[in-house]
Amino acid sequence: MSLLELSLDTTHEAVDWVCTLLAETIDMDDVQIAKYDTQNLSDLDVNAPWSFTIRLYVPYDVHARVRMEKIVNLLSSLHRTGLTTAIQTTVVEEKFSGADISNPLVHRIGKRFVVLAADANYQSEAADEVILRLKTTPAFGSGLHPATILTLKLLERYIVPQMNVLDLGSGSGILSVAIAKLGATVLALDNDSIAVQATQDSVQRNGVAQQVTVIQGSLGCGSDLGHWMGGDIIDNVSKIEPQETFDLIVANILARVHIALAEDYRRSLRHTDTHSGLLITAGFTSDREEDIVTALTEIGFEVIDCERLNEWVALVYRLT
């Protein structure tokens, strides 16, 4: 059967949003993500903000037009805000199999991390590379979003073996896998069932199940905030009571959640004469940075490090 190919170019920020919006409409196995091809572009196009091209496929049958219109409507807000191009459509006999698909998208982050598609063939180029394999999923955390990139760079800097770490808002599980591969033990929490499934898949796929415990739930008052991404109301989600348990907490989530959980962060980190707990916050842009820093410093945190990419910010704090 012929296929209807829908394609669009996106910024780094838009990839996770596109996958999340499409999740209830299309099989994620029918979604391809490739680097934006800058060859043969005009002088005007070469300065375009696009980083990736997403292709998705639906059967070209009597329902194709309805499916296409639904997808266009779902993604229209991203196009209006300049995060994606308009969708282009083409009738094809098979899925795209160009060089950028047969040769896997290799996304290098920091000094050691390499993010790959789940089934990509890849030969390591250095003995200390940390390979992170991810299935395309509607959960946030493709490894392509600036907030994820910044967080991984900071984890590479601060995770040491034997740490006990909380990954709050685990999404796709990319951060939990990275932390485990750096030698730490992880509790992965998310209040969304799709994210929990995605994290479990990533943990199994990357062979770190012995180091990562995955739970649908939240920390402290987080369960009272509803679905963090604005989804359906959540019921009966586990609540992890704050205790001085963790050496490091990483949370790549919305700004309002960081502010609401400030006290729970403090109460959950180990703090002794010889050890001060660390907190990594990400998932927000510079316009919310001051609000978050103020909320955290007022209860005893100090900023000790940061990473920035365009308007996105990730910060490291030490409990004083």
Automatic annotation (TrEMBL):
One of its GO terms (biological process) is methylation. GO terms for molecular function: protein methyltransferase activity. One of its GO terms (cellular component) is ribosome. Keywords: Methyltransferase, Ribonucleoprotein, Ribosomal protein, Transferase. InterPro entries: Ribosomal_L11_MeTrfase_PrmA (IPR050078), SAM-dependent_MTases_sf (IPR029063). Signal peptide: none annotated. This is 50S ribosomal protein L11 methyltransferase. It comes from Dendronalium phyllosphericum CENA369. The lineage of its organism: Bacteria, Bacillati, Cyanobacteriota, Cyanophyceae, Nostocales.
